[in-house]
Specification:
The chain starts with a helix and ends in a 23-residue tail after the last helix. The chain has 13 helices and twelve strands. The protein has a seven-stranded mixed beta sheet with strand order 1-2-3-4-7-6-5, sandwiched between helices. The chain has a five-stranded antiparallel beta sheet with strand order 8-9-10-11-12, with helices on one face. It is of the alpha+beta class and about 425 residues long. About 40% of the residues lie in helices and about 15% in strands.
């Protein structure tokens, strides 16, 4: 496996030098930093440049033009006006392709219409963004091009094996959208075993991983109303980030996944039903982070798409003590929910689980209207507050740390280092 893929596939945050510097100096515009790094890779490595040209070239781009395309960053006037395109691919003074990078920033007034009109006939624009944003951005891009008369309303996007989805436009032009990891995979496949390219992609992948973990904001209505499409993707992304934060706090591996209900379970069920998230190992008594779209989010009384709690069959603490921990966490969550959602119609305090229930769950308080680093910091502070009763109880009983795989080490035994 190429060395760069370990960063982008998600084991650890900020593992590359450039990602560390971006965090240390609080880069204000992540899109500019990442697209500048991407442009550097394209210009330094002929194989990466050729792969990008091939990816962005429609059949209408002449072969002799493809060999002359050069990539430049922050190109003034390449949008046909006074704005700047993140990366423009030009042969001479003619723009045949452009790349626009996104993390949390919204589309500007010029995007994508001005960029598309600046292209030569047969040219392409590619927007690259975090995967959870693709459904919303895809719809917005199609709506804007249709309103400008550049595409037909309802025209389907067509996916390629590369992971890019393309929308056909007038004049032989096209507009694409893809996720950052998919684009890096295309470049990484261009020169397998090339150490310099792998090293540069590793650095770029580290920055992307950092900014891909930036959180997209929620509205108060989204938190309680259930979700499909972009809102559902947002919930999955938030769950992943929450699992990563909880894992870091507990020094446990990061491994969220889908969990199916038991084969004999029926609705209504006393257990979680088709949930996404992670259960943490032994010493943490089955602490779980979960998003359950089928039988919770959007139903009456729901105050958050995410929940945390305990699977009681996995408890290592005594049930009496763990239930007191759960009640303390529940009280803290209710206080935060009241503080975060003052504009919603009055909602009752969320019900506490019965002591003999299979799961003891509480809604995870998400603060609406914030995004990015502010949202991540708020999420981390909430995790620390909610976990405090559990950590105090684990420390009191002497279960200092749990090992990967749910095994609690014996006193004095060395804890294996997580490898994922």
């Amino acid at each position: 496996m190429p060395v760069w893929t370990g960063v982008i596939q998600g084991a650890a945050m900020n593992t590359s030098v450039l990602a560390h510097l971006a965090e240390r100096f609080k880069v204000p515009h992540p899109e500019t930093l990442v697209t500048e790094a991407l442009c550097f890779v394209l210009n330094r490595h002929p194989a990466a440049r050729a792969a990008m040209v091939a990816l962005l070239s429609s059949d209408a781009v002449p072969q002799e033009v493809r060999g002359r395309v050069e990539f430049s960053s922050e190109v003034a006037g390449a949008d046909g006006g006074g704005g700047r395109v993140d990366i423009a691919g030009r042969a001479g003074s003619r723009t045949w392709m452009s790349i626009e990078g996104k993390f949390g920033a919204p589309l500007t007034d010029k995007q994508p219409v001005a960029y598309l009109r600046a292209l030569e006939v047969g040219g392409s624009t590619l927007l690259v963004c975090p995967a959870p944003r693709i459904p919303d951005l895809r719809a917005a891009l199609a709506a804007r091009t249709a309103a400008a008369g550049l595409s037909v309303a309802g025209e389907p996007w067509r996916a390629e094996p590369s992971g890019v989805e393309w929308l056909a436009l007038g004049g032989g032009r096209r507009m694409g959208i893809t996720a950052w990891p998919r684009l890096l995979a295309v470049l990484g496949d261009a020169a397998p075993g090339g150490r310099e390219l792998e090293s540069d992609l590793y650095q770029l992948g580290g920055i992307i991983t950092k900014f891909e973990d930036e959180l997209v904001g929620w509205t108060a209505q989204e938190l309680t109303a259930g979700g499909v499409g972009g809102t559902f993707a947002k919930a999955l992304h938030t769950t992943r980030v929450l699992c990563r934060i909880v894992g870091a706090e507990l020094e446990a591996p990061y491994a969220p996944r889908w969990h199916a209900p038991g084969k004999n379970a029926v609705l209504p069920s006393t257990e979680l039903w088709d949930w996404y998230g992670q259960e943490f190992c032994g010493a943490w008594s089955g602490l779980s982070v979960c998003m359950e779209p089928t039988s919770y989010w959007g139903l009456e009384g729901c105050r958050s798409p995410l929940r945390v709690g305990f699977r009681t069959a996995a408890a290592q603490l005594s049930h009496d003590r763990l239930y007191q921990v759960y009640l303390a966490m529940h009280r803290a969550a209710d206080r935060l929910l009241d503080r975060h959602q003052p504009d919603l119609p009055a909602l009752p305090a969320t019900d506490r689980a019965d002591r003999d229930a299979t799961w003891w769950l509480l809604p995870f308080p998400l603060r609406p209207t914030i995004a990015g680093a502010e949202a991540a910091a708020d999420l981390r502070a909430t995790v620390q507050m909610l976990l405090a009763p559990l950590r105090d109880e684990v420390a009191r009983t002497g279960s200092a740390r749990c090992a990967p795989g749910g095994v609690v080490p014996q006193q004095g035994a060395e804890v294996p280092v997580p490898t994922d």
